[in-house]
Amino acid sequence: MKRIHAMVAAAMMAAVNISAQEESVQPYIPLDNLPRLLDIMPEPPAFDSPEFANDVVRYGWGKQQRQDEERVAMAIADAEWNDHAKLFLQWKDAFGLEINEAATPEIWKLMETSLATTDPMRKETKAYYHRQRPFERFDDTMPSHEEDDLRGEGSYPSGHSLRGWTISLLLAQIAPERAAKIFSRGWDYCQSRVIVGAHWQSDVDNSRTAASIGFCALQGCDEFIAQMKKAQQEYKEKTGQTVGVHTAQVVEHPAARSYRIDGTPAIDADHGIIIEQGLKIIK
Question: Is the pTM of this model over 0.90?
Answer without folding.
Answer: no
